[in-house]
């Protein structure tokens, strides 16, 4: 299994390299100007000078080479040095065009809120979706199944900007229970600040977990229905196993295989942030960083985040493949 | 939970030195009102206005960094770190107009306690004009050749040519004074790399940076060394960025989570509904931001190849004054203002609507719609619909135009209104809208930029940078027409070319004295408007919201909106 994993990783390298070329070229060749957001009162000559200071004058292949070098050599070195407490040298890190600060520093600043809000929403969503899907399939066509199905469809159909607006109207404006805007500078130091953190996370987490629950419930239910119709379930029941053992030990375990890959492939999405939900509530995580950088044509930031996501997706695929082996003894790696 | 570091993903944090100093006991008054919460839906990216120029960044930095003089809400210069505004009369400006002498107020200190000296003023000049520094405000320092410091409190600015309006550098929030000691190693190409300095500049203002999270939020704390005893009343500022104008308005006017929300460009009915909840009020201020329609005086026909939209190729229809005038007459600017901006806009007939001394009265009454007159004008100029297709023509040229602008709900409404009115006078219009970052970007390889103007008519907003309109009016100089020779960079997007206008511009750049300058400026404004080079539509105000418990706010469209934050205080509504 280890050699399989290593082989897969080795195969991933050319894939990632190709992705990096595509990501860089797409962004660099797309129309747009990092100076577009400046007031019109700043004259063109000054803009041109600022553009050239960003390195936009250099040929494309040179910019790509520099970026790749910074990405795979300089940034890891800076990170290692920081961890070991070595005094940093003057290496040019990937600098954001908009903030002039290192892109990785920006990402590190954004990750906590993205991971807490999205991660919690994801875990919560899965925790609700799995039992919901299993029970819906078991009580196929019952009232419970129909209600659960209805909620799932609603969750898939209602976009987050709409559900967020409704929740804000009810819970922030009308009832005044929770804030509508997330304070990223809030530091949890005591019970009252912890309570403030819970309150400000409530709405975004609910909006996001509704989406996760909806999607995963539907996968789980479909896979479970499939499994319940199999001969081995009838055999298990004929053997006299309890319904509980049949449901959890046999049907659920087998139907987890497709669901696990859906869940694993959703994990990189947590790191990508939720562009709309973050924007609505001002969570200002990775998603908001990505969209504001796109709007400002801050190419180094956009390219770096996109590339990191590509890496995570490749890794998540690998993890999903390895997880099959744990769930299904027939799957063997060589 | 606030995880401060994620070991597996860490790039080192540059510690934002949180130099929080406990409140002085002698200063019991400062900070008495706790925290004020400000929401800018565009988050500040950097706190050094010399490296950004974005309004959000300039205004966030204005809590910390201060200039020698500011503009008050009426557009009048007010001494800030200086003792008085230098003029010809008080001897601060030399008779040959090449030298201006500023005197710093004695006893001012930086927030770290060190004294503010003329050396800092000199350093700021060197910082912005250093080669390869990519300073966004370089234009403000144009022709400034040296800053001398005869003593600690006197800065003498020497220009290479007479400057009748010498208040470019160090006036207004774009060009504040930087601390020489802090930025000494950040000159020229090293400027962008100075993350620590750019994220937490040391200033003389009422606040200091406690924590800066780029594109997200800033925490400021009161400057313990601030010059005014007992100010600011708020001990800390929570400056949140992000979300959108709608959410920002809601957070002040509906939920009351924030005290101040900036730049609420929302439909008038949306704002009214929010304000009706009674938690806060909408405040507006006007300066010179004018939404306008510009006609292309050159031919954008793709068949012309290299010569497309260049000065040598006059527009077959729009070079006729009668056509431009008829198009303008067909517009009902009052209706446009009401629909698009409500109380936050005013119909205007001038490209320079303020300050009052510069506003021409020669164009009053332009705003009335006159469809009949427009039709008559076109007919008398020979533009008639001879083939009965509803579109007028002359010598084989049809009045069919492409009208482009940036993607923006209000602008698209305006486009539809204009299209319908123009249809009624026999003009066919094709509408286009282009993403703002492309339209306002000046990428010479894109065919869709405002400057390239590969269309007949376009709409955008522009403003004068400060109350003196000289450089703004200079945008219409013949030599500043965009063309392939200057990589399509140039402010004269209309390609208006009139030697008489250029002569007036020369005269303006040599005339001192406010009244004389205003006279010339009004004349130039009238030339642009009466030649229908531009059709001013709406004088757009700045719109913000403040909560009812916040007092002392004086919204300012000439300077930073937060210019007088030291005076802000909490009241019971």
Textual characterization of the structure:
- The complex is a heterodimer of chains A (334) and B (573).
- The model of chain A has no long low-confidence stretch (mean pLDDT 85).
- Chain A contains twelve helices and no strands.
- Chain A has 334 residues and is an all-alpha fold.
- Chain A has two domains: 2-84, no CATH class; 111-296, MetI-like fold, CATH 1.10.3720.
- Chain A has helices at residues 2-29, 44-53, 60-84, 103-138, 143-157, 160-174, 191-228, 231-238, 243-272, 275-281, 286-295, 299-327.
- The longest helix of chain B has 17 residues, at 514-530.
- Among the domains of chain B are: 1-64 and 205-283 and 543-573, D-Maltodextrin-Binding Protein, domain 2; 290-465 and 534-540, Dipeptide-binding Protein, Domain 3 (Dipeptide-binding Protein, domain 3, Roll).
- In chain B, strands 1, 7, 8, 9, 10, 11, 12, 15, 16, 17 and 18 form an eleven-stranded mixed beta sheet that branches. Chain B has a three-stranded antiparallel beta sheet with strand order 4-6-5, with helices on one face.
- The two termini of chain B are 34 Å apart.
- The radius of gyration of chain B is 25 Å and the shape is globular.
- Chain B is an alpha+beta fold and 573 residues long.
- The chains are: A mainly alpha (334), B alpha+beta (573).
- Chains A and B meet through helix 2, helix 3, helix 4, helix 6 and helix 10 of A and helix 4, strand 9, helix 5 and helix 11 of B.
List keywords for this structure.
heterodimer; A: 334 residues; mainly alpha; MetI-like fold; 2 domains; 12 helices; B: 573 residues; alpha+beta; D-Maltodextrin-Binding Protein, domain 2; Dipeptide-binding Protein, domain 3; eleven-stranded mixed beta sheet; three-stranded antiparallel beta sheet; 20 strands; 21% helix; globular; disordered N terminus
């Amino acid at each position: 299994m280890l050699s399989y994993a290593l082989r897969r990783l080795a195969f991933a390298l050319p894939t990632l390299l190709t992705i990096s070329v595509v990501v860089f070229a797409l962004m660099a060749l797309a129309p747009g100007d990092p100076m577009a957001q400046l007031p019109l009162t700043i004259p063109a000559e000054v803009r041109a000078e600022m553009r050239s200071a960003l390195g936009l004058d250099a040929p494309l292949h040179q910019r790509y080479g520099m970026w790749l070098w910074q990405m795979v050599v300089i940034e890891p070195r800076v990170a290692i040095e920081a961890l070991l407490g070595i005094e940093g040298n003057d290496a040019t890190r990937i600098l954001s065009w908009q903030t002039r600060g290192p892109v990785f520093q920006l990402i590190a600043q954004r990750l906590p809120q993205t991971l807490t809000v999205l991660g919690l929403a994801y875990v919560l969503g899965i925790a609700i979706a799995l039992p919901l899907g299993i029970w819906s399939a078991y009580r196929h066509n019952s009232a419970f199944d129909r209600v659960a199905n209805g909620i799932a469809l609603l969750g898939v159909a209602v976009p987050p900007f709409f559900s967020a607006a409704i929740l804000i109207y009810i819970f922030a404006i009308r009832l005044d229970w929770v804030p509508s805007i997330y304070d990223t500078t809030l530091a949890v130091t005591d019970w009252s600040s912890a309570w403030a953190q819970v309150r400000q996370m409530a709405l975004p987490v609910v909006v996001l977990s509704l989406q996760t629950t909806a999607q995963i419930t539907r996968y789980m239910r479909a896979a479970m229905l499939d499994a319940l119709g199999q001969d081995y379930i009838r055999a298990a029941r004929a053997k006299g196993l309890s319904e509980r053992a049949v449901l959890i030990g046999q049907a659920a375990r087998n139907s987890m295989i497709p669901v696990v890959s859906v869940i694993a492939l959703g994990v990189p999405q947590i790191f990508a942030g939720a562009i709309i939900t973050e924007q609505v509530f001002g969570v200002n995580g990775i998603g908001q960083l990505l969209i504001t950088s796109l709007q400002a044509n801050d190419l180094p930031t956009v390219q770096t985040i996109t590339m990191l996501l590509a890496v995570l997706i490749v890794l998540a695929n690998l993890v999903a493949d390895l997880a099959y082996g744990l769930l299904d003894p027939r799957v063997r790696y060589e | 939970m606030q995880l401060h570091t994620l070991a597996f993903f860490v790039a080192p944090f540059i510690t934002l030195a949180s130099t929080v100093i406990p409140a002085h006991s002698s200063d019991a008054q400062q900070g008495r009102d706790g925290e004020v919460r400000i929401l800018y839906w565009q988050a500040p990216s950097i706190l050094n206005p010399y490296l950004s120029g974005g309004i959000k960044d300039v205004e966030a930095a204005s809590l910390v960094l201060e200039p020698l003089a500011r503009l008050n809400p009426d557009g009048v210069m007010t001494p800030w770190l200086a003792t008085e505004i230098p003029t010809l009369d008080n001897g601060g400006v030399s008779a040959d107009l090449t030298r201006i002498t500023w005197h710093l107020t004695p006893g001012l200190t930086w927030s770290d306690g060190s004294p503010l000296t003329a050396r800092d003023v000199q350093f700021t000049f060197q910082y912005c004009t250093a080669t390869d520094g990519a300073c966004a405000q370089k234009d403000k320092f144009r022709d400034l050749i040296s800053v001398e410091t005869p003593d600690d409190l006197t800065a003498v600015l020497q220009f290479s040519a007479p400057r009748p309006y010498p208040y470019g550098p160090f006036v207004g929030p774009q060009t504040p004074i930087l601390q020489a000691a802090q930025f000494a190693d950040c000159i020229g190409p090293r400027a962008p790399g100075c993350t620590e300095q750019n994220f937490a500049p040391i200033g003389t203002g009422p606040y200091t940076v406690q924590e800066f999270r780029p594109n997200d939020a800033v925490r400021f704390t009161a400057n313990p060394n601030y010059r005014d005893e007992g100010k600011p009343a708020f001990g800390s500022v929570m400056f949140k960025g992000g979300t959108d104008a709608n959410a920002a308005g809601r957070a002040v006017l509906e939920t009351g989570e924030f005290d101040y929300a900036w730049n609420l460009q929302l439909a008038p009915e949306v704002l009214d509904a929010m304000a009706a909840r009674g938690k806060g009020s909408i405040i507006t201020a006007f300066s010179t931001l004018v939404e306008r329609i510009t006609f292309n005086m050159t031919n954008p026909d793709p068949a012309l190849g290299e010569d497309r939209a260049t000065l040598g190729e006059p527009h077959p229809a729009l070079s006729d004054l009668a056509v431009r005038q008829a198009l303008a007459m067909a517009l009902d600017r009052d209706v446009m203002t009401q629909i698009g901006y409500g109380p936050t806009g005013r119909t205007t007939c001038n490209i320079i609507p303020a300050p009052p001394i510069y506003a021409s009265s020669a164009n009053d009454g332009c705003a009335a719609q006159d469809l009949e007159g427009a039709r008559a004008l076109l007919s008398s100029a020979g533009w008639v619909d001879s083939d009965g297709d509803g579109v007028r023509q002359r010598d084989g040229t049809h009045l069919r135009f492409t009208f482009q602008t940036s993607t923006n709900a209000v602008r698209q409404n305006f486009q539809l209104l204009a299209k319908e009115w123009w249809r009624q006078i026999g003009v066919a219009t094709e509408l286009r809208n282009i993403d703002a970052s492309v339209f306002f970007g000046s990428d010479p390889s894109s065919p869709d930029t405002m400057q390239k103007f590969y269309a007949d008519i376009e709409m955008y907003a522009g403003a004068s940078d400060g109350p003196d309109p000289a450089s703004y009016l200079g945008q219409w100089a013949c030599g500043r027409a965009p063309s392939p020779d200057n990589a399509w960079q140039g402010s004269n997007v209309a390609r208006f070319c009139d030697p008489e206008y250029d002569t007036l511009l020369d005269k303006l750049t040599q005339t001192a004295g406010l009244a004389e300058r205003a006279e010339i400026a009004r004349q130039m404004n009238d030339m642009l408007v009466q030649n229908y080079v531009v059709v001013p539509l709406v004088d757009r105000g700045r719109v913000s919201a403040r909560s009812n418990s916040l007092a002392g706010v004086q919204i300012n469209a000439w300077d930073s909106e937060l210019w007088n934050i030291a005076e802000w205080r909490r009241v019971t509504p």
